Each structure stands twice: as C-alpha cells, then as structure tokens.
Amino acid sequence: MRVVLAQPSFEDFYATPHRLSALGGFSIKALLEAQGHRVLFINFPLTSDKQRPGALPDWAGHILPCLADERGPVSYFTRWSRWGPEPEEAARIILSHEPDFILISLFAHAYGEEVLSLARACRRISGKVRIPLAVGGAGVTVHPGPFVDEPAIDLVLAGEGEVLFRENRLEELRIREGGDKLIRAGRYCSSDEMVPVISETTGGKTHRQAATLLSRGCPRGCRFCSNRLTQGEALRRITPDRMAGEFASFLNRPDPRGIRKLTLDLEDDNLLLDRTYFREILRTFRSLWERAGRGRDELFFTAENGLDYELLDGDFLDELIGLGFRQFNFSLAVTDPALREREKRFFSLDRWRSHLSQLEKGGIPSVSYFICGLEGDSRESTARTLRLLYDAPTQIGISLFYPVPGLEGFQGTDPYGGRHWGLSRGSMAYPWTGSLDTVSLVTAFRLARLLNLMKNSGEASRHEELIGTILREKILYTYDGHKKKIPVPFQDGDLVSSVLGGITFPRTR
C-alpha cells in the first residue's frame, strides 16, 4: 500500500529545531515500512528554508496591544509566520504521489486547525475519489473530539502508534460510514515495541543538529505537565542495543556540507529517573562515534526539555560534562513556596546553586527555566523568581503557561471553555488561569530577556544606553525598525519596578 504520512505546516511567532524533529512521524514510517508498505513521509515545516510572514489571526487580537514593529534584545515576538506551505499547496503535493492512504500527524493540540485545514484541502482536491485519511499523534490523543467531528477525516487514532498499527493493520482500516471513527490504543507500548528514531533537524553552520527520544512516560504527576496524558505514568526505555543500532545507522548518513560535528538533543522529560540507563546510552553513543573515526570533541549532547537538577549530584554532573554535555537546561518550573506545594514540585535552593557554581567554575553555560502564569502566580512571585535567577550564574528561561486538554481545569468536551484552541500556544500569552493578564505575562518575558542581556557583558556594552534608560526610568524600552529607542507600547509598570528596583549597571556579583 502506498502511504503518504505528513506533518502539517504550522503558524506561530517562532519555531525551534525540536519542534521540527517529527520523531513520532519517523517512528510510524519505520513501523509501516517493516509491515511492507511504501511510505513517503513529508515533514512540511522543513520543506522550505524560509518562513512565510502572515497576518495575525482574528482570534489572537488580545495580544495586539503588546506587539510593536520592533527589533533588538528586549523585544517580544514580532512576526506571525507560517512554516511550510498553505493547506491547498500541501494537499496537492500529497495527492501528486497517488496514495492509497493518507496519515496526518499532530505533535501539539494547539496546532489542530492546521490538521483540519489540510484534511479539508485533500478532500476538495481529490473530488469524488475518497482516499482514506486518518489523523493521529500526541495532539490528537489528548482531545480527539474536534477531529472526530470533522467530515473530511475518516479515522482518528488516539494513543501510541506502535500499538495502534500493531492492533490495527493498515490494510484492515476502513472508512467507517456512519460508525465510530475513533480508534484508541488499548495499552501503552512496551520497551521492546518502541521504535528508535534519530531525526536530523535544522542544520547549523558548524554543527549538524539532530534529536531523539530514549524513553516515554512519567510517574511524577506534575499538574502542569501533559507527558502522562499521552505516554502514561510508567517509565519505559528503548533498549540500549536497539538505540545503538539507530545511532550507528545515523552515522552512516553523510552530511552534504561536510560538517563533522554533531549536537544531539535528547527530548526526554525525565532522563535522570534512571541514571544507570542514561549513563549507558551516552557511553554507547560516544563509543560508536569514536569507533567510526570521529573526534571526541565533535559530539555534544543537550536536553532542551530540561534536566531535573534535584536528581543530579556533583559527581554525575562532572560525568555528564565528560560525556559531552556542553550546556545544561534545568527545569525549575516553580520557585515560590506556595506555588511549589500547589504544583507538587520541589525546589532545593542550595542544590540548584551548588550545580550552578560547579558549572560556572568549569565554564559550562546553563539555562534555568520557570513557568510564568500558573494558577496562584502573581506579580510578586514572578518578580521574586526573576530576581532570584538574575542573581544566579545562569541564563533565565521563561515559559508562559499554556494548557493542554486533560490537565486539571482543562477537561471535558470543551477544555478551553469556548476559547479558540490556537490560544494554547505559549507565545500567545493568554491569561488562562487569571493569575496574570497578557500585559503582565509579556512584560515578564521582556524582563527575562533584559536581565539576560545584562548578564552578558559583551552584548550589554553594545546596548548600554538602552539598559541605562530602562533602569533609570523603570520603563521598558525597545528599538523600532530604524534602531531608534522607543518605549514598549503596553507594559506592567508595577512588575517592571519590582524587578528592576535596586539593580545597578554595569552588573556586579
């Protein structure tokens, strides 16, 4: 059977390499090919090197007052864009391959509108020829309802693909006229069933960049995290020998630019829950790399989704550096005591500071991430967190809270309470919990960028006048398109004053 598997285009203010890795799509491709199907996987966001600027949708009007035609180090997101072709163009590409079956994968529910648009376009163009069309992926699994209700979609697949396509062979799936088109996986896949995938993402100038996922599931149950909704609470790991086989295969893929260095991002949420396994995998990758004649200093690891610093100690931190980690992302989530109790997260200030001190001595950079806008958050708690991170030897990573269907407070048939699902993009700064409004959320984001700028002495010196004006007037400024200094159009003055009060420049520690 000829299958076209597609990851659709998406619209947002920004894209990151790990958003484009399409690990789920590549695993389904491998699984279906092993069953004898001919599969073409089209990762539409990567089919063009250029993003396509577009108009901000009507449903995003709440953020318009906070946006400006601006540039520079304290700006918010400025250009709404599309990554990949329009639905009609994408549909024509899919249908040009004359598929017997179309599968569309959705990595996040917030981008579900793109799936519906692509499915409708496929139906319009194919006319009377009804090619079976199914949708699946994490974004579908958390809330299948909108996809079940869409007439252009024949089958809705909820759950892990390794189970779905073993329990339901593709040639046995049929268009269910008038029947229930939702198919749910009856279980989670076992470690032996997980398909190992290493996906090359956007290439840098000096490093190839790729991503992989070593494990699934999480037993920790944090209220704001959707991992358990799609992967369950049991931690499952791809066996080291199978992961080694995938890495060896990846090493045989030549880079046409002749770049030898590789940065491999490990997308797992909870790598440190099994330290023995984590260590074995990293050692295996490094051994295979060096046996292939590659230089030891040409392989690096990152964990963009963050490492839980609570599960680290000094010796293991040194070991990870020795194995190739060149930056550490720490997932703090929350630092305020009241919020920690509510969100079931713990924060050991001493342990975190100890790790940062160790990294600073070794010249290893770090980013410490927190979530802004959780239920119970406030200007005061946000200001305390920003100041805490500013005073520490780490870059500040701020994540604006966004809901996923199934999380507490966002359940049922209408998890968003009548609001457009596109608002659940983090970049929308939508006040989902009511703890902070959009202006305060965007102000916090800008402040995080400002504080990071002040930590970077080289960059800060280039923007000395901008920083000085902001600190003196306690008003955020930015640059317009002509590099002229202008005040930010809408900002939370109380939050700005709380964060910047008492800060001097140049920065001293």
Explain what the structure shows:
The chain has 17 helices and 21 strands. The longest helix is centred in the C-terminal third of the chain and has 18 residues, at 438-455. It has a domain at 2-48 and 84-184: 3-Layer(aba) Sandwich (Rossmann fold). It starts with a strand and ends in a 9-residue tail after the last helix. The chain has helices at residues 23-34, 87-96, 112-126, 138-141, 145-148, 161-167, 227-231, 240-251, 275-291, 314-323, 337-343, 349-361, 379-390, 438-455, 457-462, 464-473, 493-500, and strands at 2-7, 10-12, 38-43, 52-53, 70-71, 81-83, 101-105, 133-136, 155-158, 182-184, 198-200, 208-212, 215-216, 236-237, 262-266, 299-302, 328-333, 366-372, 395-400, 477-480, 485-487. The strands form 6 sheets. The protein has a 6-stranded parallel β-sheet with strand order 3-1-7-8-9-10. A 4-stranded mixed β-sheet has the order 11-12-15-16, covered by helices on one side. It has a 3-stranded antiparallel β-sheet with strand order 2-6-4, with no helix packed on it. The model has no long low-confidence stretch (mean pLDDT 91). With 509 residues, the chain is an alpha/beta fold.
Furnish the topology, listing elements before pairings.
Elements: E1 2-7, E2 10-12, H1 23-34, E3 38-43, E4 52-53, E5 70-71, E6 81-83, H2 87-96, E7 101-105, H3 112-126, E8 133-136, H4 138-141, H5 145-148, E9 155-158, H6 161-167, E10 182-184, E11 198-200, E12 208-212, E13 215-216, H7 227-231, E14 236-237, H8 240-251, E15 262-266, H9 275-291, E16 299-302, H10 314-323, E17 328-333, H11 337-343, H12 349-361, E18 366-372, H13 379-390, E19 395-400, H14 438-455, H15 457-462, H16 464-473, E20 477-480, E21 485-487, H17 493-500
Parallel strand pairs: 1-3, 1-7, 7-8, 8-9, 9-10, 12-15, 15-16, 17-18, 18-19
Antiparallel strand pairs: 2-6, 4-6, 5-20, 11-12, 13-14, 20-21
